[in-house]
Amino acid sequence: MERMKNIFVITGVLCFFISSAFFFPRWLFSNFGEAHFISSYLYIYGSGVPFFIVGLWLLIHSKALNFKVTGEKKWLLFFIFGLCWNVLMHGFWVLMAVQLPFKGVI
Q: Rounded distance, CA 83 to CA 89, Å?
């Protein structure tokens, strides 16, 4: 019974990722347009964060992160903090690139 449950979960996750890979970019471009600066940012993190969450789920359920060992919770927090840091810094640089004019050497 556990095997059938795993097959349904894996099939559901694959269907979600395949359908979101098709529909999510089309939804972004229809709402923001291809030339909007935030479209690529939302595409990167909107399609990447679900993969990150599935990766964390796999780490936890395969016992690669064993919470009975001291210090393993720090790794989970490190992964989550690292993702948040990258999202914030990337967003900051994208906004600064749009807001601040570049005055290059002529």
A: 10
Task: Read off the pTM.
Answer: 0.73
CA distances (Å), origin 59, targets 23, 52, 73, 90: 28, 10, 12, 25
Q: Is residue 54 part of a domain?
A: yes
> Encoding tokens for residue 45?
């993190």
Is residue 71 in some structural domain? yes
Residue segments in the chain with a per-residue pLDDT below the cut of 70: 104-106
**Checking phi first, is residue 102 left (phi over 0); if not, alpha (psi -120 to 50) or beta?**
beta
Q: Assess contact for 49 and 105: CB atoms under 8 A.
A: no
Cα dihedral 79, 85, 91, 97 sign: negative
**Tokens encoding 94:** 């994208």
Overall domain count for the chain? 1
The confidence score (pLDDT) of residue 65 equals 85
